[in-house]
Write a structure and sequence with these properties.
The complex is a heterodimer of chains A (640) and B (590). With 640 residues, chain A is an alpha/beta fold. Chain A has 21 helices and 12 strands. Chain A has 3 domains: 210 residues, no CATH class; 114 residues; 240 residues, P-loop containing nucleotide triphosphate hydrolases (Rossmann fold, 3-Layer(aba) Sandwich). Chain B has 3 domains: 181 residues, ABC transporter transmembrane region fold (Up-down Bundle); 114 residues; 218 residues, 3-Layer(aba) Sandwich (Rossmann fold), CATH 3.40.50.300. In chain B, 64% of the residues lie in helices and 9% in strands. Chain B has 21 helices and 10 strands. In chain B, strand 4 and strand 5 form a beta hairpin. The chains are: A alpha/beta (640), B alpha/beta (590).
């Protein structure tokens, strides 16, 4: 399955603007979209053998289930009890079989009928079980594959995508929406499981009495009509229920997040009143939906019983004219459930189906979101080891049309040199290093790595050569070792430990009871800020990239760790071209050059000393910004 | 199951609805059995017609059919009423639980929210309440089925034939024991599925939040492989659950086949010797079906109970949490606060923390004074401020305000006269104007603009198309960090409170704007108490007195000039900030 839609082919100066708000839009799924349905089914194709087996099994099981009823009505009642053998009504050869068995084993008819019934019932159980298992197996596997494809697709979406679409929105597609598809496919499967007996039973009923069957079938459109009106009536109510639930949750969430403000402003009573109002509105909507759904449900399961009345009434007339036997009438009563369950189920499944349509739309919207970094058609192969010369040449860039973030930026960093980038918030520091990491496409200007145009190298190749340390070190759950090696089989345990030692991370890791195998939880709650920074250094060092990018943490760290970090950083930068978004004065002073950015423009460039003497923007920033011992953590910008 | 008992008071508030449900279902069952009975009667009637005999009880087929239709209609009425009653109770109880949850969290303090995070509380409010609602709405119905189905089934069967009923009776305990066994298996497998589902969600969340790191380190392939393990594990757990459920569906009717066998062979025999009618035989089969209903439900019911139990425990944890701050006004507190805070040997230790966050603080703040506080992260600045608004209560020592212990002030009175601007700028999903005038939604627009002006926010707001009506927060316009800080600053300033506390709320505001705001502040706050936390000497120098905190202790106190002259921590800080020394090195000496 080629779900990875190939790269955006646009050429020209700018990436076309995309409407990321689409991800917020409530997709209706109001119509049955067969194209969508077919598309979902393509994931089932690899498991078609299981599906066929499942279909064959359900057919056999249904047949056995129908035969069971024939044993009761025709064999037990007509043949054994009433002694009516010459009725023209169908018995599928079961009466003959009973007679044969009676003669062969010399058993009374009752025992033979009982035995037949028991065998058929066992068949229904076993075949039905295998039918369900093969079906569920196929569905679960195909959805696992779909989820895997979706995940793989998301892994390669560029930063510009994640900048604009909140993680929560994407998450629900991977979890809830796929669950909804399961509900739908399982529902479709059980519909098949119910409709096969429906048709088998219908065939027998038609051959027993066409007229009575047709009369009973007239009840089906009644269920259909009821379902139609029910859906009409509930669509609006369900929507309002959903809305009231989401405003309920939104209000609570907001109050929880801003609890201190609420309490300091003494808004408790007022907010409780607002919440009660939303809560009451929700209750009101829920009541409306309950009223309708309970009537609808009760109506549906009453119809089969009405059918029983019809059978008795019609049967009474038919037996008098010898058109039906008593067993025939009983057969009809026993088939009523087989006739109505699937129809009612269909009505219920419609809701699931419509819900799943919306989920399917959301999943495929994500899967079809082909926004990606432009990869070169014939990527240049990089040498085994780069020297590490980086050059920005007249780079212009903006995330959005008409709002340039970088303007004509040019700078050259010689191999092994350290460049500190400084500037006020929003000056384009982070953007500059993001472009170097090939996180964004840019059309105006060029960046060179050892003289090779960055855009002719594949993004993966670039990133393997550039180690990035962000302000916030992202922990993946797993051991410390896993977090250093990032599951790269090329990095041995020894190498990881060596890296940790070099950047001063070893001592705190070794102090943990489980050392390098100590498990880390998400967001690294069991590590201090400083320890996480050291771990980030170890991670980059273990990967041994030629170029280092560092977005220095602004948060304050205790003195001892701070010294370890500064020292670790020195080791990390050794022999590596380093580009630092620096916040600590010491880091800046140790850099070979300082680049001062303001509103996307290079204002000043030179050594720390030279720039101080120059007395320009750097001097001002220097006086105002860097000297602080600590910066508040509220200002942390951890996006790359 | 003990935690579930806590639900009883909530449900008993709606006991009449519950009674309606039970009675409704009883009647519905009665008419359902009547339908089967009448159908059996009809079958016998038809049998009689074939034999040219008269119909039982002298009824006609038409009369029987009318009876069936009536029974069906009555059942329809009662069953829909009864279901509605139960489902309404479910919703009513969730309404009450939500109200209680909301009022409970409003009373809680920082320690509570540190223990149970926002995400966790949201899960409790959404999922746990939904579990309870479902338990009441559908669980009650299952209780009804479990009681009524065997009751009606057995009674009806005994009514028709005692010996046949006795014959199939021994089978029931076997069936119920089997059901019990499978039900516990089902509950277990459903728990495993839930666990692997949340693991899957956690894995996805974790990966997507760290996607930039993954891509920066070119780890996509590894991550995709790692995800497959979690993904596949979930698929397998799911399959296992489906397998157990399917076995249940397959085996239950098979076990009952023995009973059906008894009905066919012995019942058939009874019919042949004339003790039973054909209709009775069919009636028996229908009743047997009814006896089995609870068995089919058992698995789902036990799973539902187990999950709702967890939900109740988690909700009650919130309900039972004692508020950290109690409002016990004594009446001795003055109505108007001047801002004369006096700390006498005040200490504060966070619950579970090994060392105090503040220890032995003694100081006095005069009304109208402006105080600057400086200190490293974790030095106790925010804790000190929280004591002033009673977001926390002192662990030891005395804190009085205007010569009255601070605990004697009604919380309402205290907090309405002390405005505090928090470090983390939080905006509600409401119009900007409503956010600024959050404490009093009825304030005049002019005053809101004045506050915006003082917080250097006017130009920003003028640029918004809807100005003060612009929706901010998650669903509205995204403000920059600096804009948010200025908006929350305006929220503090608008109250013109006797005491204003600014907790490091200029960090994202550029220096020039900060200078501008500070000079406005000096004018506005003349004669009023202002407490300001900052890291910048350039900010602190504007205050009358500066307090330096280190590791929870007050190490220096005095005006900018005095502290500079004394050559302590503050002077060192000033030297660093104006002369530019390596940060790390100075911290060593500090």
């Amino acid at each position: 399955m080629n779900v990875h839609v190939k790269g955006s082919q646009q050429s020209g100066a700018r990436v076309p603007e995309r409407d990321h708000a689409m991800f917020d839009a409530e997709l209706s799924g109001a119509v049955l979209n067969f194209q969508l349905l077919t598309r979902i089914l393509t994931w089932l194709v690899p498991y078609k053998l299981r599906l066929w087996a499942s279909a064959a099994l359900v057919l056999a099981a249904s047949f056995a289930a129908v035969l069971m009823e024939v044993v009761i009505s025709r064999v037990l009642v007509d043949y054994i009890i009433v002694g009516d053998t010459d009725s023209p009504m169908p018995d599928l050869g079961l009466i003959a079989l009973t007679q044969l068995l009676e003669a062969t084993f010399g058993l009374p008819g009752l025992y033979v009928a009982g035995g037949l019934f028991f065998v058929l019932m066992s068949l229904v159980g076993v075949l039905g079980h295998w039918h369900r298992l093969t079906l569920i197996d196929a569905i679960v596997r195909s959805l696992r594959d779909l989820r895997q494809d979706l995940f793989a697709h998301l892994e390669s979406r560029p930063s510009s995508f994640y900048d604009r679409v909140p993680v929560g929105r994407i998450m629900t597609r991977v979890t809830n929406d796929i669950e909804a598809l399961y509900e739908m496919l399982r529902g479709l499967g059980s519909l098949v499981g119910e409709f096969v007996p429906f048709f088998v039973a219908l065939t027998i009923m038609l051959s027993t009495s066409v007229e009575l069957t047709l009369i009973l079938l007239m009840l089906v459109p009644i269920v259909g009509t009821a379902t139609y009106f029910f859906r009409q009536a509930t669509r609006e109510i369900f929507r309002q229920v959903r809305n009231s639930v989401s405003s309920l949750n939104q209000y609570l969430q907001e109050n929880l997040s801003g609890m201190q403000v609420v309490q300091l402003s003494q808004r408790q009573e007022r907010n409780q009143a607002v919440y009660t109002k939303i809560n009451a509105e929700n209750l009101n909507q829920e009541f409306r939906s309950i009223n309708l759904t309970t009537y609808y449900g009760a109506f549906n399961d009453s119809l089969a019983s009405v059918g029983l009345g019809i059978i008795i009434y019609y049967g009474g007339g038919a037996v008098v004219q010898s058109e039906m036997s008593l067993g025939g009438v009983i057969l009809f009563t026993r088939f009523m459930n087989m006739l109505f369950t699937p129809v009612v189920l269909l009505g219920e499944q419609l809701n699931v189906l419509f819900r799943a349509m919306a989920s399917g739309e959301r999943i495929f919207q994500a899967l079809d979101w082909d926004e990606q970094i432009r990869e070169p058609e014939n990527p240049v192969q990089l040498p085994d080891r780069l020297e590490g010369r980086v050059e920005f040449r007249n780079v212009n860039f903006g995330y959005e049309r008409d709002t340039p973030v970088l303007k004509d930026v040019s700078v050259m960093i010689e191999p092994g040199k350290k460049l500190a980038i400084v500037g006020p918030t929003g000056s384009g520091k982070s953007t500059l290093i993001r472009l170097l990491g090939r996180f964004y496409d840019f059309a105006d200007g060029m960046i060179f790595l050892d003289g090779i145009d960055l855009q002719t190298i594949s993004s993966r190749a670039v990133r393997k050569r550039i180690g990035v340390v962000l302000q916030d070190f992202h922990i993946f759950s797993g051991s410390i070792l896993d977090n250093i090696t990032l599951s790269d089989p090329g990095i041995t345990r020894a190498r990881a430990i060596a890296a940790a030692k070099t950047v001063n991370a070893h001592s705190f890791i070794a102090a943990l009871p489980e050392g390098y195998d100590a498990p880390l939880v998400e967001r690294g709650a069991n590590l201090s800020q400083g320890q996480r920074q050291l771990l980030a250094f170890a991670r980059v060092l273990a990967a041994d990239p030629e170029i280092l990018i560092l977005d220095e943490a602004t948060a304050s760290i205790d003195t001892e760790t701070e010294i370890l970090i500064q020292d670790g950083l020195r080791h990390l930068m050794r022999g590596r071209t380093s580009i630092l978004i620096a916040h600590r004065l010491q880091t800046i002073q140790e850099a070979d050059h300082v680049l001062v950015l303001e509103q996307g423009v290079v204002r000043e460039y030179g050594s720390h000393q030279a720039l101080i003497e120059q007395g320009g923007l750097y001097k001002t920033l220097h006086d105002l910004q860097f000297q602080e011992i600590e910066k508040p953590s509220a200002d942390v910008d951890n996006t790359l | 199951m003990k935690p579930l008992l806590r639900l009883i008071p909530y449900i008993s508030r709606y006991r009449w609805q519950v009674v309606v449900g039970f009675v409704g279902f009883f009647l519905a069952r009665f008419f359902e059995v009547s339908t089967y009975y009448l159908v059996a009667l009809g079958i016998d009637g038809i049998g009689a017609l074939i034999q040219d005999e008269s119909l039982p009880y002298g009824l006609s087929i038409l009369e029987i059919v009318v009876g069936i239709v009536c029974a069906v209609i009555l059942r329809f009425i009662f069953v829909s009423r009864a279901r509605r009653a139960f489902r309404r109770v479910g919703q009513l109880v969730s309404f009450d639980l939500r109200e209680q949850l909301f009022s409970s969290v409003l009373r809680q303090g920082p320690a509570f929210f540190a223990r149970i995070g926002v995400g966790d509380l949201m899960t409790r409010a959404i999922q746990d309440i939904a579990l309870i609602q479902r338990l009441i709405a559908f669980g009650l119905i299952q209780v009804v089925i479990m009681v009524y189905a065997p009751l009606f089934g057995m009674t009806a069967m005994l009514f028709k034939s005692v010996s046949l009923t006795l014959l199939i009776l021994p089978l029931l305990p076997v069936l119920y024991i089997y059901a019990q066994h499978v039900a516990s298996q089902m509950a277990e497998s459903s728990r495993v599925v839930q666990e692997s589902l949340s693991e899957l969600a956690a894995h996805t969340q974790e990966n997507l939040s760290g996607i930039r790191t993954v891509q920066a380190q070119a780890q996509e392939e590894n991550e995709i492989r790692r995800f497959f393990r979690t993904n596949n594990q979930y698929a397998e757990a799911f399959y296992e659950q489906a397998r157990i459920n399917s076995l249940m569906t397959a085996w239950t009717p098979w076990l009952t086949a023995l009973a059906q066998l008894a009905i066919i062979i012995y019942g058939g025999h009874l019919v042949m010797i004339g003790e039973l009618s054909v209709g009775d035989l069919i009636f028996f089969l229908a009743c047997l079906n009814m006896l089995l209903q609870p068995i089919r439900m058992a698995g789902f019911f036990i799973t539902m109970l187990a999950r709702a139990k967890v939900g109740v425990v988690r909700l009650c944890e919130v309900f039972d949490a004692e508020p950290e701050i109690t409002d016990r006004p004594t009446g001795s507190a003055p109505a108007r606060i001047d801002g004369n805070f006096v700390f006498e040997g005040v200490s504060y230790t966070y619950p579970g923390a090994p060392t105090p966050a503040l220890s032995d603080i003694s100081l006095s703040i005069s009304p109208g004074e402006s105080i600057g506080i400086v200190g490293r992260v974790g030095s106790g600045k925010s804790t000190l401020l929280k004591l002033c608004t009673r977001m926390l209560d002192v662990s030891a020592g005395r804190l009085s305000l205007d010569s009255v212990p601070i605990q004697d002030f009604p919380l309402m009175q205290l907090r309405s006269q002390i405005a505090q601007v928090l470090q983390d700028p939080f905006l509600f999903g409401e119009p900007l104007g409503a956010n600024i005038s959050y404490d009093d939604p009825e304030r005049e627009l002019d005053r809101i603009w004045d506050a915006a002006d003082s917080a250097a926010l006017r130009d920003t707001v003028l640029n918004f198309p809807e100005q003060m009506e612009t929706l901010v927060g998650e669903r509205g316009v995204t403000l920059s960090g600096g804009q948010k800080q200025r908006a929350t600053l305006a929220r503090g300033l608008i109250r013109n409170a006797p005491v204003l506390i600014l907790d490091d709320c200029f960090s994202a505001v550029d220096t020039e704007t900060e200078e501008h705001i500070l000079s406005r502040l000096k004018m506005l706050r003349a004669g009023l108490t202002t407490i300001l936390v900052s890291h910048r000497v350039s900010t602190l120098r504007h205050t009358d007195r500066i307090l330096v905190l280190e590791e929870g202790r007050l190490v220096e106190s005095g005006s900018h000039e005095v502290l500079l002259a004394s050559g302590g921590v503050y002077a060192e800080l000033e030297r660093l900030q104006t002369q530019g020394q390596g940060a790390a090195e100075t911290e060593v000496t500090a």
